[in-house]
Amino acid sequence: MKNSSTYKATDIIAGFECRPGIYTLNGASAMLKAVNFTIHSANATGCSVVLFKRGETEPFAIIPIPDSYRIGDTWSIMIYGLDIYEIEYCYRFSGEYAPEKGHLFDNKTNILDPYARAVTGQSVWGVKSNKSGGYHGRITTDKFDWGTFVKRNIPFSDLVIYELHVRGFTNSITSGVKHPGTFDGVIEKIPYLKKLGINAIELMPVFEFDELYEERRHNGDLLMNYWGYNTTCFFAPNTSYASGIEYNHEGDELKNLIRTCNENGIQVFLDVVFNHTSEGNEDGPVFSFKGLDNSVYYMLTPDGKYVNFSGCGNTMNCNHPVVQQFIIDCLRYWVIEYRVDGFRFDLASILGRSEDGTPMENPPLLKTIAYDPILRGVKLIAEAWDAGGLYQVGSFPSWNRWAEWNGRFRDDLRCFLKGDNGMAWAAVQRITGSADLYPPERWHNASVNFLTCHDGFTMYDLYSYNVKHNEANGWNNTDGDNSVTSWNCGTEGETDDPEINGLRMRMIKNAFATLFFSRGAVMFYAGDEFCNTQFGNNNAYCQDNEVSWLDWTRLKKYREIHDFVRDMIAFRKNHEVIRHATAPSGFGFPDTSIHNSLAWNDKFNDHDHVVGVMFAGRDKKGREDAVFIGINSYWEECPIELPALPEGYDWNIDFYTYAPYKKGTDYNALIYRSGNTYHVKPRSVIVASAISKQGLYR
């Protein structure tokens, strides 16, 4: 608590001792003898603090903030005699109600503090709040002990990112944790993640959201906003993800997760959604920004309607100076108070649109984030597109700080791996770091390579379904991605055909081998390593059930895939040349080379389905290294010639996806070789490393 003993009350308002507050202290802050409330609105004419007893819907006090307490657009008041453990709060604003002008002021509407550190009534997942009067904030204290916390500094190119939904990761009884569906449940799985080789987790939204907003039933099943891309409050953690009640110290369990992850060499990134809020369009509720300063915080048409570049009803006016400051304050808060290591920005292209919606060449918000001194050490990852048609993969404004979800990597390699014509050249570009998209100065920190994420098919479903099966979502299968980059390998959905199932396992291993062999950071979706399925649903945003929850029994059933992923991650970590350029090769090889079925031939035509990529150099310990991936996406056996190695060295086949995977298998004995030419079976991948004839590379 901050010391307020030097501040003396100057007024009695509504029976409370008060004085002007600290104008630079946003939100509600506990002082030694008082609570400081600070809020901003450019267009309101009056503001009151509304106080409630814990759990009550009717206020016990409404304290108007005098005009003399207002400086510029900021109201600030210090109120004495409040027990922060027994109260909740919100605001009410007076002003013009003129929707056609963008003003929605109503002094009877309760407005949630956008800077609230905790939101009440949201603590139990799936239980509707009994608060008919809107959301309330709670005043928090920070007593969390970070101990000797030291942030991990993992280079971008070394990242192996595991995207997960906090609830879905452990909510199934099959997870075996004591605290399913919670931050503590994730903590219980850290040993598993560590053994797998993960060094970063990306948490789908953990800011407070209302999972029951727009709840509905379809065929008797409750559908809700399970993913959480509908933020209620940007400064408050989702308390329904905590395993216990955290009155007035909300966030401690999330902080413990972040601390424990870092102690185990795992960074924590947050998926943040600044492009829209859960207030929706004209038909949506008024509980926060709409009632605070609607025309400032949202993009509006000249007649006061909501612009919808987000596809979710409204669009935040991100490059308005006030909104810019709010977003910067929010990011700084999560870095300072929660020690997060990075952010993934949902539909980040919206953050680069001007106040009239047009794309900007040098968006001030993105530039400010890039250069902010508090944010300087965190990873910034953009989903470089939006629902308004703006697609910026390869061109997102970066200032050499912003990385991108490389959607071209996903799309091009999915097409190549399933055998589409004309994709060979695009495939090698993606594997070698997408130099056609990113300039040399960005190669080390530009591309987050992925083939799967929360949005779309799981890896198992990618090779089990030709089309989406989203009927359970209640939109007649009209929602979700309609692209044709998946392949069912011959039968739609589950089958007992051993040949098809064998092909599917091979395709999954091909995909993972290609992903982990590629330059750039690596990301995949939780459960993909043991073939988790969503039964063909590629937009499971509303499915709080077995569709979205990880089925941990599949870890035993698909142990081969899990072990393959684990060992490919270890292989990537053991070979620095895969991740980035190193010291020049003593073999005389270039850092990166591209091959077709013949070594050193980098010419491709539309009917080529064989590619080879070699990385070579010396690692930091001076060890000579060369690694090669050969991909045959054709439906027949094809020869792949590897470059000749200097005398005393030979190629060792470390992985061959045609054969069942088991650590320690001698794959050299399972593939026909003639000189440096290997005859690779249909739809298979080989990964090889140069070894001294006296022993393997170590």
Quickly count the domains.
Answer: 3
The protein's oligomeric status is single chain
- Mean pLDDT over the residues: 96
Radius of gyration: 27 Å
The residue ranges in which pLDDT falls below 50 over 5 or more consecutive positions are: none
Percentage of residues in helical conformation: 10-25%
Q: What would CATH call the homologous superfamily of the largest domain?
A: Glycosidases
Determine the structural class based on helices, strands and strand pairing: alpha/beta
What does this structure look like?
19% of the residues lie in helices and 23% in strands. Helix 6 packs parallel to helix 7 (364-371), helix 8 crosses helix 9 (424-431) and helix 11 (498-516) packs parallel to helix 13. With 698 residues, the protein is of the alpha/beta class. The strands form seven sheets. Strands 11-12-17-18-19-20-21-22 form an eight-stranded parallel beta barrel. The model has no long low-confidence stretch (mean pLDDT 96). It folds into three domains: 11-111, Immunoglobulins (Immunoglobulin-like); 156-405 and 523-574, Glycosidases (TIM Barrel); 578-692, Sandwich (Immunoglobulin-like). The chain is built from 14 helices and 30 strands.
